[in-house]
């Protein structure tokens, strides 16, 4: 895990005020959780295997890419991030490691760093990199650790998979948050981005919009997770 020194920042999107959010020091996994790590977890807790998990905890596509309950297929998928995992399963995994899911603000705080700066959100190159990833297909099949190492020593915050946070649903995008009066949840990406005036607003918006579309039992092929931990 990487140690993250506490600080404060103003989230670019979804903030209810312009006041900085204070982040206490914590630690976070250097890489997203991989298939081989998640396999070890469900072998110990088979109630979270594909055939035994209850429907209230995961939808029908839970671990759909695996060939069976305890087999994800080819060995070259060992270090590929596990995806099609629900929030409930991700939360349980972290708890079993003595950890937890990072909060949304913690995740954003770590993710705003590039290789040299704690906050690189104003850099056009950084935001173009993030947006270019959004357009690339099947990055979720790449091994962990192939994107850049950021200021904190953390990899894959951008460029590999979307990631669950503990409070992913704490901010819901509504008509008011889009500066209009019409709420159309089916168009959260398209209609919500109309008022994004620059690249960093849009890059951040896409993350918040994606989170707001989720429910805790949802699973998707490009959604994984990593764990965090409080400093004692």
Automatic annotation (TrEMBL):
Residue ranges that the Swiss-Prot or TrEMBL entry lists as coiled coil: none
SUPFAM superfamilies documented for this protein: C-type lectin-like
InterPro entries recorded: CTDL_fold (IPR016187), Sulfatase_Mod_Factor_Kinase (IPR051043), SUMF_dom (IPR005532), SUMF_sf (IPR042095)
Domain Sulfatase-modifying factor enzyme-like: 3-229
Pfam families, A to Z: FGE-sulfatase (PF03781)
Signal peptide: none
Protein name according to UniProt: Formylglycine-generating enzyme family protein
């Amino acid at each position: 895990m990487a140690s993250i020194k506490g600080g404060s920042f103003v989230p670019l999107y979804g903030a209810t005020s312009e006041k900085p959010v204070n982040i206490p020091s914590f630690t976070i996994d250097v890489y997203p959780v991989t298939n081989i790590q998640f396999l070890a977890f469900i072998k110990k807790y088979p109630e979270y295997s594909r055939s035994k998990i209850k429907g209230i905890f995961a939808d029908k596509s839970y671990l759909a890419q695996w060939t069976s309950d305890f087999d994800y297929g080819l060995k070259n998928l060992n270090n590929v991030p596990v995806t099609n995992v629900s929030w409930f399963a991700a939360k349980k995994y972290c708890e079993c490691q003595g950890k937890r899911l990072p909060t949304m603000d913690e995740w954003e705080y770590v993710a705003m760093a590039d290789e040299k700066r704690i906050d690189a959100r104003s850099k056009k190159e950084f935001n173009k990199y993030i947006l270019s990833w959004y357009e690339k297909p099947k990055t979720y099949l790449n091994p962990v650790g192939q994107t850049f190492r950021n200021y904190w020593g953390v990899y894959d915050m951008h460029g590999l998979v979307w990631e669950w946070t503990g409070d992913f649903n704490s901010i819901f995008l509504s008509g008011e948050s889009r500066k209009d009066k019409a709420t159309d949840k089916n168009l959260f990406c398209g209609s919500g981005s109309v008022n994004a005036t620059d690249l960093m607003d849009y890059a951040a918006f896409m993350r918040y919009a994606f989170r707001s579309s989720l429910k805790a039992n949802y699973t998707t092929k490009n959604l994984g997770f990593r764990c965090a931990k409080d400093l004692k």
